[in-house]
Amino acid sequence: MTNSIDFLNKVISIKIDRPMGSKHPKHGFIYPVNYGYVPNTISDDGEELDCYVLGIYEPLETFTGKCIAIIHRTNDNDDKLIVVPENKMFTDDEIKALTAFQERFFESEIKRPNDYIAWNKNIPELSVTDLDSSLKFYKLIGFKIQYSRPENKFVFINLGQIQFMLQEVSKNDKWNIAPLTYPFGNGINFQLEVDNIDKIYNILKQTNYKIAFDIEENWYRQDNKLLGNKEFLVQDPDGYLLRFSEDLGEKNIK
What we know:
Blueprint: E1 11-18, E2 34-38, E3 49-53, E4 62-73, E5 80-84, H1 92-103, E6 108-111, E7 125-128, H2 131-140, E8 144-149, E9 154-159, E10 162-168, E11 189-193, H3 197-206, E12 211-222, E13 225-235, E14 241-252
Parallel strand pairs: 3-5, 7-10, 11-14
Antiparallel strand pairs: 1-2, 1-4, 2-3, 4-5, 4-6, 8-9, 9-10, 12-13, 13-14
């Protein structure tokens, strides 16, 4: 039996048996992408291990590319490899959209290599005076280091889908165009949506971090409805304002 996980991050050769534009022999839908299999493999359904080829926009007979992800069907025994040209990358949402023509009939999850990072389109980089002090704060509230460059005193951290870059200030730093004075980032706050705001709030209170404004519920108007947030504001060691927020849903304006 072939283990689909073994193909992650590997370059593999595929035989295309359902090229882009062809019709499914049983269900009749049209394939908007090339679909094939890895020869000389056996998946859990007893057939060859199937593959979606993304990033190529013409019908193919064969293809060699990199496996960047696996669609693991949780209600079926038929994993699907996602294979792309070596210089291409697709987000989970893009993979779901491009394979929905067939995967909509199944429940599934997308598996990635252990070192995979789903990059946000907007990632703030914070200049900090002492990286160790900043990391102590961010780790306390649940952030994890995804990778670091110790020689540059730089780290990339995340809490779920919240992402920050932290870099300790150095002389002749080209990223700072004026002298930094406390509190850093004055005039901006970062709204960070979390699932359990009380947990983070209680951790900070127990360790005596100063809360800029206490936890409260606020409702903000959007057209004819109100959007609810449970939120509080705290400063990190350099004074950057973090507004932690938990979604309370919405309600109509009476």
